[in-house]
From TrEMBL:
One of its GO terms (cellular component) is ATP-binding cassette (ABC) transporter complex. It comes from Parahaliea mediterranea. Coiled coil: none annotated. Residues 352-378 are annotated as: Disordered. It comes from the Bacteria. GO terms for molecular function: ABC-type ferric iron transporter activity; ATP binding; ATP hydrolysis activity. SUPFAM superfamilies: MOP-like, P-loop containing nucleoside triphosphate hydrolases. This is ABC transporter ATP-binding protein. Keywords: ATP-binding, Cell inner membrane, Cell membrane, Ion transport, Iron, Iron transport, Membrane, Nucleotide-binding, Translocase, Transport. InterPro entries: AAA+_ATPase, ABC_SmlMolc_Importer, ABC_transporter-like_ATP-bd, ABC_transporter-like_CS, ABC_transpr_FbpC, Mo/tungstate-bd_C_term_dom, P-loop_NTPase, Transp-assoc_OB_typ2. Residues 352-368 have a biased composition (Polar residues). It holds the Pfam family TOBE_2. Residues 5-237 form the ABC transporter domain. GO terms for biological process: quaternary ammonium group transport.
Length: 378
C-alpha cells in the first residue's frame, strides 16, 4: 500500500535554528496520525511544514504521490489539497453555518455547492443549524462546523491543530472519539497536533512522540504505553514511576517486591535495574506478605489511586477498587505484578534516540498528571 502522506528525513529551520530534524513518518489513506509532545518540541512547526506555511531545509514531504516540499520546492498552501482545523476554529462570525461551510467551494457551480454543503451538514449532524451564526452555537458545534468546512473541498489530508484545546476537559475526550469515528467512517486521512495524550489516544492510530525536535518514538497508542522505547516516553505517556531495584539470579527483586519474568531475562544477578511501574502493576492482595505504607491517595470514583512507599523510600502508584479504603499513614497489602513490567538498564536510555538540545521547558520530565495530588495530611 502506498502512503497518502510521507515525510522522509524532514528538517525545518528558522534561520540558523533547526526546530525539527530527521523526521520520517508515513500515513496510509484513512489513517489518523498524531504529533504529540511537550511544549516547544516542534509539533506546530511540522504541521505548518505539511500545510506549506514553512519550507523544509532537508528531506521531503510527499502527499498523494506528489512531492509538495523539499529543499527548493514549496507548493503553496492553497495548491495543496490540505484541510485545516484550528485551535480557535477560526469561523467567520458574520457568516451563518451554511456559508461558513461553503466558503472554500467558490469554484463549484451554485447547485453543486449547495448539495456539497448539505452533505457536510449531514455528515457533522448540523442539518438543523444551517442558518445559525457561530456565536449561537456551543463549542462542540462550532468545532463540527470547522470540521465540515475543512472537509468540504475533499482534501487529501486533514490537519487538526490542537482542535479540542478550547473546549472543556470532559468534552474533549468524548469529542475526540466522535471526530475519530466521523473521519474513519469517511476514510479521511488526518494528522492531529496535541500535547494531551488522552486526546491522542482517543483519536490516533499512530502517534509520533517528539522531543526536542526529534522523534522519540512512532507507534500505536498501545505500544507507546506498554512498550515505551525510552524512559522519556515512559514518563510522558501514562502514569507511573520509575524505580531502581536490584535483582538476583532467580529474578527476585530486593525487599520482597516480587520476581521478574525469567523468559525475557536480559539482566545479570546483582544488576541495578530501573523498572517502569504503572498503577495497575501493583495489585491489592489482602493475603500478601508485602505491606507498604500509604503516603497519598486520590479518590477516582470507581477506584483509588494510591501512592505507596517502598522500604528504601521510593514511591510507587497503585490502583485499587474504591472499596479498598486505607488512609495515608496506614499500610496496604500488595503484590507486584511483574509479568509485563518494562525494564530499563540503570542509567541507560534504551534506544538510540538523539536529542537536538533545542528543547525548552517541560521536556524530559513527565507532563502527565503526578501520581496523586499532594495530601496535606500525609
Ligand atoms: N517563527 C519562529 N521563529 C523562530 N523560532 C520558532 C518559530 N516558531 C517556533 N519556533 C521555535 O521552534 C521550536 C518548536 O516550536 P513549535 O511551535 O513547533 O513547538 P510546539 O511543539 O508546537 O509547541 P507548543 O505545544 O507550545 O505549541 C521552539 O523552540 C520554538 O521556540
Amino acid at each position: 500500500m502506498t502512503s497518502q502522506l510521507l515525510l522522509q528525513d524532514v528538517s525545518v529551520a528558522y534561520g540558523d535554528f533547526t526546530a525539527v530534524a530527521g523526521i520520517s513518518l508515513s500515513l496510509e489513506q484513512g489513517q489518523i496520525g498524531c504529533l504529540l509532545g511537550p511544549s516547544g518540541c516542534g509539533k506546530t512547526t511540522l504541521l505548518r511544514a505539511i500545510a506549506g506555511f514553512e519550507p523544509v531545509s532537508a528531506g521531503d514531504i510527499v502527499l498523494g504521490g506528489q512531492v509538495i516540499s523539499a529543499p527548493g520546492i514549496l507548493l503553496p498552501p492553497e495548491r495543496r489539497r490540505v484541510g485545516m482545523v484550528f485551535q480557535d476554529f477560526a469561523l467567520f462570525p458574520h457568516l451563518d453555518v451554511r456559508r461558513n461551510i461553503g466558503f472554500g467551494l467558490a469554484a463549484l457551480e451554485r447547485t453543486e455547492r449547495r448539495a456539497r454543503v448539505d452533505d457536510m451538514l449531514a455528515l457533522v449532524g448540523l442539518g438543523d443549524y444551517a442558518g445559525a451564526y457561530p456565536h449561537e452555537l456551543s463549542g462542540g458545534q462550532q468545532q463540527r462546523v470547522a470540521l465540515a468546512r475543512a472537509l468540504a473541498p475533499g482534501p487529501d489530508i486533514l490537519l487538526l491543530d490542537e482542535p479540542f484545546s478550547s473546549l472543556d476537559t470532559e468534552l474533549r475526550e468524548q469529542l475526540a472519539g466522535e471526530v475519530r469515528e466521523l473521519l474513519k467512517r469517511n476514510g479521511v486521512t488526518a494528522i492531529l497536533v496535541t500535547h494531551d495524550q488522552h486526546e491522542a489516544f482517543a483519536m490516533a492510530d499512530q502517534i509520533a512522540l517528539l522531543r526536542g525536535g526529534r522523534l522519540a518514538q512512532v507507534d500505536t497508542p498501545y505500544n507507546l504505553y506498554h512498550n515505551p522505547a525510552t524512559e522519556f516516553v515512559a514518563e510522558f505517556i501514562g502514569q507511573g514511576s520509575i524505580i531502581e531495584v536490584s535483582v538476583n539470579e532467580a529474578g527476585e527483586l530486593n525487599d520482597g517486591l516480587g520476581a521478574l519474568d525469567m523468559v525475557h531475562r536480559d539482566w545479570r544477578a546483582g544488576e541495578r535495574l530501573r523498572l517502569l511501574v504503572r498503577p495497575d502493576d501493583i495489585e491489592y492482595d489482602e493475603l500478601s506478605q508485602l505491606h507498604l505504607p500509604v503516603t497519598n491517595r486520590a479518590f477516582r470514583g470507581a477506584n483509588y489511586l494510591y501512592e505507596l512507599r517502598l522500604p528504601d523510600g521510593q514511591r510507587v502508584p497503585c490502583l485499587t477498587p474504591s472499596h479498598v479504603d486505607t488512609a495515608p499513614g496506614l499500610s496496604l497489602p500488595v503484590r507486584f505484578n511483574l509479568q509485563h513490567v518494562v525494564v530499563f538498564k540503570s542509567g541507560v536510555e534504551t534506544s538510540g534516540v538523539e536529542t537536538s538540545g533545542v528543547e525548552t521547558s517541560g521536556a524530559g520530565t513527565s507532563s502527565g498528571e503526578p501520581p496523586v495530588p499532594e495530601n496535606p495530611t500525609a
